[in-house]
Amino acid sequence: MEADPRTVLELEDRFATDKACLEYRAYLRWPGGFVCPRCQERGGWPASRGRWICQHCRYQASATAGTIFQDTHKPLRMWFRAVWHVTSQKTGASAVSLQQVLGLGSYATAWTWLQKLRRAMVRPGRDRLRGCVEVDETIVGGESEHLGRDWGEKSLVVVAAEKDGAGIGRIRLGVIPPATREALHRFIEQSVEPQGLVHTDGFPAYRGLERLGYEHQVSIVSGKEPDAASRLLPRVHRVASLVKRWLLGTHQGAVSAKHLPYYLDEFTFRFNRRTSRSRGMLFYRLLQQAVQVAPQTYDDLTGNHNG
To answer: Could you say which of 17, 197, 236, 262 would form a disulfide bridge with 136 (CB–CB 3.0 to 4.6 Å)?
Structure first.
């Protein structure tokens, strides 16, 4: 398989037809050769309309079935352009910008496509953070940011950031219910490798991390020092500030609480790949993960299910 496109012109040239897009999609889904989704046997041959026929049970499988591209009515080359647009924008893409770039007649279509792609931005089985990891919470949404841990109608977001020398390594973000010990411990277990050093403030809900296999460093934040938290836990506070600025700048702060986790996934995807010099690699990674994510209907995305 050829190298990933480096420019939009290479993208347009390489994926000018749906046939080329289907072949690339099949390669991403079955990099070691076709595997039948019914009998799990290897081996088959391509048929018409982007389908594959299993040489064992003769089942006809599609490279798009069971992925976020299932049942799409738009040309696949438009999806590839959408993925390129999303990964080539350093600050992210809004539904309005995607609608304009692709010439989509409906804002709802652009919004739906972006929501589907955001669900592909978390790689199944991704590695957890390692080494020294700062963890803290922040409040997202609304006008006031000075509510302590009593956030009312706002969303409580927990941030984990690896220490990379004086800088920040990888991050994890998650929306949690009230900041209970159970919720915070669950997030840390999902985000940080055991035996790591977890650095937090003195909030009592963080107590007991040693029983989960972590080394726990506590920095007591004094209320008499306005900048104490950002000084003692600089990485998580830097990330929290960037998240809020991104939500306000790219999305004008118009992100509902029920969709916030997927926007945080997008921010994490971009932040953890911020040093990549290859737009083509980001394009490849997002498409690669997209063929591993189950299909989502509009009602799935909006939560508007009848009955």
So the answer is: 236
